[in-house]
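User: Study the fold:
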Amino acid sequence: MGEKKRKKILIVDDEQTVRDVLNRALVEAGYECVVASRVDEALLALQQERFNLVLSDILMPEKTGIDLLAAVTENHPETAVMMVTAVSDTETAVNTLKMGAYDYLTKPFNLEEVCISVGRVLDKQSLEVANREYRDHLEQKVERQTEKLRDTFMGAIRALADALEAKDAYTHGHSERVTIIAVMISEAIGMTGEEVEKVRLAGTVHDIGKIGVPEKVLNKPARLTDEEFEQVKIHSELGEDILRNLVSDPDVLSYVRHHHERFGGGGYPDGLSATAIPIGARLLAVADAFDAMISDRPYRDSLSQEKACQQLMSNRGSQFDPDIVDAFMCSRDKLAICPLPNIPRAG
């Protein structure tokens, strides 16, 4: 009885006798009831309080029970609806089941059967609400678990990047700076949030393949020989191979693989050109080259940012995507406020 008292029913019928009969029978059965004589009155009641069930006549002046059913289904999906109809109009009542009604009652009523039918519908409604709440809870739990896994994954990625930078002292902070610059450009050209995050991840690990390059080559205090440069060139393919077991997104893998391709062709590892090079790789190529130019290397001093920009412009269309260079040039003033550690500010 206590459970039934918590169930609230809205009875909608333009005939007062019908409202009174249903109200009395359902109140005696332990339900809390509210009555309405018109659809607009019922809609107002639904705005003011929550009902477990709406019990509505189909044929009423002005708006009909079918109008009410549509409004409840759209705006109050947690509320069940039962239709009331004359025996001669059961076809319409059956059609309302296809529109979302749980059940229908026919006049004249057998009040015992009314109570049984209402109880059955409310039991079904309770199960559906409980199932919906369970699914919502489960989705939230999965989302929290996914967030934990994402944090663990990003920790592993950062650990790989840190391991690389520990191996090559001259690339300390390079991946972080490239990421900041690449994200800046990706936002400037209007990439979506999801696309920007792919660029961010690829930037963090774009040089991870250098773990497989001998330290004596990475740290050589002079220009590399052709043979040594060939050893370095494998890092983009090797990076893709290393990340394949960690990163499932093919875009991120392609950005890492192709960030040394040249817009005019002739880059590595696949000699792609123009828009055959993935957009994220074209972004990283500009960011990577800019940071490399303004950073000290064993065999040369850093360039100023102005001179580095001149080099980007000189190679616009040959080495670099001209649109990406233009986007960088238009937004590079943001670098003055970006937390770019260890970027020389030499004039």
Notes: The beta strands are 8-12, 32-36, 53-57, 80-86, 103-107. Residues 337-347 have pLDDT under 50 and may be disordered. The chain has 15 helices and five strands. The first helix runs from residue 2 to 5.
